[in-house]
Design goal:
This protein is an all-alpha fold. The protein has one domain (2-74). It has helices at residues 2-7, 10-19, 25-30, 32-46, 52-72.
């Protein structure tokens, strides 16, 4: 039960990392497939029994927390303007 309490703090942790500029939505899009597998592995560790029903019941909230985290983080960083695209004094 303690582990699930810690896991439910993940959206807050990802929001904090996003506000520090360390993580963006592109991270969540890039690693979505990894999140599904990671959720299943973590659910297999958390659940006390080995039946597939318990595994799926725990996997679904874990993956939903991943998607909620993707929703609460900042959008991708703005594209940087190259120096060649900037107007010059002589133009």
């Amino acid at each position: 039960i303690l582990i699930m309490g810690v896991v439910f703090e993940l959206p807050l942790v990802f929001w904090l990392l996003s506000s520090l500029g360390l993580i963006y939505r592109s991270f969540f899009r890039k690693y979505r497939k990894h999140a599904v597998v990671g959720s299943m592995v973590l659910a297999a560790i958390i659940t006390p029994s080995g039946d597939p029903f318990s595994l799926i019941i725990v996997t679904i909230p874990l993956y939903m927390l991943w998607e909620i985290s993707a929703f609460v983080v900042k959008k991708d960083p703005p594209e940087e303007i190259e120096e060649e695209d900037l107007p010059t004094v002589f133009e």
